[in-house]
């Protein structure tokens, strides 16, 4: 009896950035490397063959997704990107931008036949602007308030889910211990919530970040609100290994 094909995961983490002249452009992302390694280890335990890549240029990032089009995939493809960014863009190690729509196009059904019917799930830890979320006071009658957020429209190919660390226009926080967003993802994947359907799992991450996380130090009290967009037509359970 043949073994089922293994799911695949591509984790890209950029921690250092320089220009073509060798000048430092963005600040070093301390804490991102260890966090990416933790997530890679968890995904490996959940039946994913993980490719963890550090400090890749914009061109190398595109090439990594092109390579996925030539691989044999299981039931799901997961990708985690951790880098500096702006709305619709993440930056390579060379400080050059990579449009997210370009990544999604590479994996679209007309370009990547092997992933046509396979759910493609992205978790993106990157800023989407320069605004700081000061948070709001939530009043409710229940003992446990429900999260209130919205998803920005994004053109994505069929069978694709994208979850962002923050809302459009806002910064995503990272410190030496990791990011609010990916630490919440890690907590969910290590707990019983991993057995939830993907949309419920992501909503749980929203709740965790919105009500259990806030910035310290210089940005004391600032908040973060993840959001996601999906065009899946059915419930999926990508981490219920």
UniProtKB/TrEMBL annotation:
Record GO biological process: proteolysis
A molecular function GO annotation: cysteine-type endopeptidase activity
Location of the Caspase family p20 domain: 5-131
A Pfam family assignment: Peptidase_C14
Origin superkingdom: Eukaryota
Domain called Caspase family p10: residue spans: 178-240
PANTHER family linked: CASPASE 14, APOPTOSIS-RELATED CYSTEINE PEPTIDASE, MUCOSA ASSOCIATED LYMPHOID TISSUE LYMPHOMA TRANSLOCATION PROTEIN 1/PARACASPASE
Assigned protein family: Belongs to the peptidase C14A family.
Name this polypeptide is given: CASP3 protein
Organism this protein belongs to: Oceanites oceanicus (Wilson's storm petrel)
């Amino acid at each position: 009896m043949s073994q089922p094909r293994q799911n695949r995961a591509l984790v890209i983490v950029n921690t250092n950035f320089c220009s073509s002249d060798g000048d430092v452009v963005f600040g070093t992302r301390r804490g991102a490397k260890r966090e990416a390694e933790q997530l890679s280890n968890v995904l490996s335990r959940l039946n994913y063959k993980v490719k963890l890549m550090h400090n890749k240029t914009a061109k190398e990032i595109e090439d990594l997704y092109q390579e996925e089009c030539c691989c044999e995939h299981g039931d799901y493809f997961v990708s985690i990107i951790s880098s500096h960014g702006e709305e619709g863009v993440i930056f390579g190690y060379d400080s050059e931008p990579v449009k997210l729509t370009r990544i999604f196009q590479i994996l679209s059904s007309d370009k990547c036949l092997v992933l046509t019917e396979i759910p493609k799930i992205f978790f993106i830890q990157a800023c989407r602007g320069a605004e700081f979320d000061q948070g709001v006071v939530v009043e409710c009658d229940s003992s446990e308030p429900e999260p209130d957020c919205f998803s920005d429209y994004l053109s994505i190919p069929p069978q694709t889910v994208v979850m962002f660390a923050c809302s459009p226009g806002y910064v995503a926080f990272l410190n030496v211990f990791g990011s609010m967003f990916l630490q919440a993802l890690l907590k969910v994947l290590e707990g019983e919530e991993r057995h939830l359907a993907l949309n419920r799992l992501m909503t749980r991450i929203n709740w965790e970040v919105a009500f259990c996380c806030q910035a310290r130090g210089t940005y004391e009290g600032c908040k973060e609100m993840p959001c996601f967009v999906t065009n899946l037509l059915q419930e999926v359970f990508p981490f219920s290994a």
